[in-house]
Structures are given as C-alpha cells and as structure tokens.
Amino acid sequence: MSITVRELHAVEILDSRARPTLVVTLETEGGLSVRAGVPAGASTGSREAVERRDGDPKRYSGQGVLGAAGAVNDEILDALAGRSFDDLAALDEALISLDGTENKSRLGANAIVGVSMAAARAFAATAGIALWRSFAGSLSAPRLPAPHFNLINGGRHASNQLEFQEFMLAPLGAPSVADAARAGSEVYAALRKLLLGRNLSVGLGDEGGFAPEIARPEEVLRLLVEAITLAGYRPGPDGVAIAIDAASSEFYREGSYDVAGETLSADEMINRYEEIVESFPVWLLEDGLAESDWDGWERLTARLGDRVELVGDDIFCTNPAIISHAISCKVANASLIKVNQIGTVTETLEAMRICHEAGYAQFVSHRSGETEDTFIADLAVGTGCGHMKSGAPARGERVAKYNRLIEIEDAEHLPYGLGRSLT
Ligand code: 2PG
Ligand code: MG
Q1: I want to staple 211 with a disulfide (CB 3.0 to 4.6 A). Which of 23, 158, 206, 407 is the partner?
Q2: pLDDT confidence bin for 137, thresholds 50/70/90
Q3: Do 414 and 135 meet the contact criterion of CB atoms below 8 Å apart?
Q4: Per residue in 314-348, pLDDT tens?
Q5: Percent of the chain scored above 70 by pLDDT?
Q6: Does 330 qualify as catalytic in the annotation?
C-alpha cells in the first residue's frame, strides 16, 4: 500500500540525557499523522552514520540540532512532499540519494532516520496493521524478544571507575515478557538492597542501571549472581542469565586494554573473558574487543564463538557492508542492531537479513540517549530476532520499550525468547 507525503515537521526536543534531539512528524495525504523520536549514542562507532549537530558553542555546548531540524523541514520536505511511495524501501532510497554522501553527513543521519522511522509507521498505519507486523515475514517468524535489562552502568554511561559499560540481566528462561519484566524488576530491587548493604551508591547511570564505585568486572558479576539468587531466581540460561557490553573501544589505547588498573593485550583480554564465562552465567558478550582490533576479534571468535554470543556493535555499526565482510572473516557471531547507526529502517532490515542468512544473531538495541519512542520494540518483535536491550527496568524512556512488549504480548499470543536452547 502506497503513501503520499503531505507534511514533514521536525522539532528540537530533549533526550534522556538532557541533550537535544529531534522528534519528526509525518502527515500523509490520507490524513494520517505519525511521529518518531530520534535516539543518540555516547559510545559511538567511528563508522556510524553521522549525526548533524549545530556546533554553535553558545547553544547546548554545540550539540543543538536546529540544522538537522531545518533539513527535515526544508530540503527533505521539498523533495518528498506530494510524492507517492509504494514502500518504505523506495522512500528510504529517496532520502539516501537526496543526501548523497556515504555516511548521511550532509542532511544528517538524525534528520534522515527520524523521517525513515516516521515513514515506517505511516506505511503500517496506512495498511491498518501494528508496526511490528509490517516487519514480519522478511526474517524469522515474529516472536517476543527476551529483554536484556542493564542493571550496572559503567564506561561512558557513568562517572564511576568501572570500564565495562553494561551488565545486563537476561531472563532467558522466563515463560513470557511479563514474567521477564517481573524478574528484571525483582532482581533490580534485590541488587539495590545489596548495594546499600555494602555502602555502595545506588545512583544511576545514563541507561537507568546503578553506577556503584566498583572497578573489577568480576566483582560486579558476583553481586549480580547474588542479586538473582536473593530475588529467588536461578542464575543461568534456563533461568536468569547475564550479558555484558564491555564497549571496549572506549578503553583501548595503543593496542592494549586498560581494565581495573591493568593493561592487557587482546589475548589477555580473551583469556579474561574465558575465565569470566567459565565462572559466571554470562551468555552474551558485546564489543569484547575494540572496533579496530579485527585480528583480536578473529581470535576471540575462534576461542569463544561456540559457547558465547559475541555481538559486534562499534565494529559493525549496523552496516550491511561491514557485516558482510565480518561474516567472510568469521568475526563475531551476532550483530547489534541500532537504527540510527546506519540511518534508515530499510538498511537496518538489510543488515538483519544478512545476519539472518549467515546464521548471525541480531540483538536490537536502544541508545544511551533516548526518547519515549518505542520503535525498537516493534522492530524486535516483527523480525523475530529473539532478544532486545533497552536499559534498566527503570526510567521512563527505558521502560517505554519494555512496556510496549508487554502490550504486544497482551494483544497477541507470540512465542517468547530466543527460540533455541542454550543448555
Ligand atoms: C551501546 C549503546 C547502547 P550508546 O554501546 O550498545 O547501550 O550505547 O548508545 O552510548 O552507543
Ligand atoms: Mg554497545
């Protein structure tokens, strides 16, 4: 079913970190009005599509997005208004060719992705279906993803000494999203108690997880296992497992990794990860090595790839060409999926399709800077990718996505989780 664009309007609003971002409204000739909020990252990959920021030091320390809003309201509107598109791929192609750059830097990836996400909503609404259904059929059958709750924040998302960025709780053994949400909430509460009992801070990082002054990742993992048990759950892949996003590009310096006061080579990092997965119920490791450390990644994949889901985030940037290359050199076995990292929904789906065909998993993700938009929940359900991360089971912009999953589950009986056994 085609849509004809009547109006586009972008406004500079605030994201969850008090930084400016965009909300884009799209109206169709059919009288529909849909919106999309644009996410933004902190630990960004160097090959991500480029956000357009104003750079005016007098406003928001240069972070303003009035130029990106103007691109939507003037040039993109002029190019799309009155035009009819048969599908999202055609509309996204028009955006890509209008921009004309490799990395969407001219109009701005933030401007383009906002229009693309809103357009995806317009196509679904015109067809009279829920957004998630519009993604169904291209990849795996729809399923409800296992939420990965970020309970401890470090790295660029917190001001503590912890280098690893995210420690997530993965209720893989839960029977449903509603039960997974309950596990997330109960373990979050148990962890809070444990932290207070140790006189550690329960202040929060950017993604709503606690940000205590703990340096060693193993100490965090011990605490998490204790919290899972205290809340009455079984630690492990048939109960509540753990996932890590080390975001290691951020602590990679001159070929080595600086972790908790030690300087480690790639091989020492790999050994450390092997000890971690042997001692703790860690089933997924994202960005274990840095985006430029392709040789290290190959060795990491050879060593742990049959036991652990190894997710490429900074190294892949949801980029179909980079992912294809990684597949050919056996780097990682999964890709993180962030719509704004590549800049259009169509290219995101293409990245997911390439992964799917090569047997690489797809882990749908929010950004550290978020709005209340729930787009990624529908994307994860419709593509049947089996798992999704959207931060802690706390803070409005994080739980909006999890709550959307609960609502989809309430309306539709779909299978939950990875759809494969890890035990
Ligand atoms: C990540 C993301 C989301 P950011 O590294 O996976 O958690 O962080 O949005 O800051 O890149
Ligand atoms: Mg990451």
Answers
A1: 158
A2: confident
A3: no
A4: 999 999 999 999 999 999 999 999 999 999 999 99
A5: 100
A6: no
Q: Report whether 376 contacts 127 (CB < 8 A).
A: no
Q: Which two tokens stand for residue 149?
A: 């709750």
396 token code pair: 């409005």
Q: How confident is the model at residue 201 (pLDDT cuts 50, 70, 90)?
A: very high
pLDDT band at 231; cut points 50, 70, 90: very high
The predicted model gives 186-213 an average pLDDT of 98
Residue 375: both structure tokens together: 């787009």
Measured in angstroms, how far is the CA atom of residue 44 from the centroid of ligand 1?
7
Cα separation of 325 and 249, whole Å?
19
By the 8 A CB rule, do 262 and 215 touch? no
Q: Is the C-beta atom of 52 inside 6 A of ligand 1?
A: no
Q: What is the 3-state secondary structure (H, E, C) of 201-236?
A: CCCECCCCCECCCCCCHHHHHHHHHHHHHHCCCCEC
Asked if residue 313 has its Cβ within 6 Å of ligand 1, the reply is yes
> Which of 48, 309, 313, 363 is the pocket-test mutation for ligand 1 (most atoms within 8 Å of CB)?
313
Look up residue 237 and give its two tokens: 């892949």
Ligand 1 contacts CB of residue 249 (under 6 A):
no
Catalytic choice (12, 48, 51, 207): 207
Measured in residues, the chain has a length of: 423
**Nearest ligand, CA 311:** 2
Paired tokens of 133: 């259904």
Rounded to 10 deg, the angle between the 88-99 and 109-127 helix axes is 160
In the chain, the amino acid numbered 258 is D
Is there a contact between 10 and 69 (Cβ–Cβ < 8 Å)? yes
- Encode pLDDT of 351-410 as tens digits: 999 999 999 999 999 999 999 999 999 999 999 999 999 999 999 999 999 999 999 999
Q: Is 314 near ligand 1, meaning CB less than 6 Å away?
A: no
Q: What is the DSSP letter of 73?
A: I
Handedness of CA 321, 325, 326, 330 (dihedral sign): positive
Atom of ligand 1 nearest to the CA of 207: 7
Q: What would the mean pLDDT of 56-82 be, rounded to a whole number?
A: 98
19 lines ligand 1 (CB under 6 A): no
Q: How far is CA 95 from the centre of its chain?
A: 23
- Which ligand is in closest contact with the Cα of 44? 1
Tokens of 317: 């940037």
Q: Is the CB of 168 under 6 A from ligand 1?
A: no
- For ligand 1, atom 2, name the residue with the nearest CA: 367
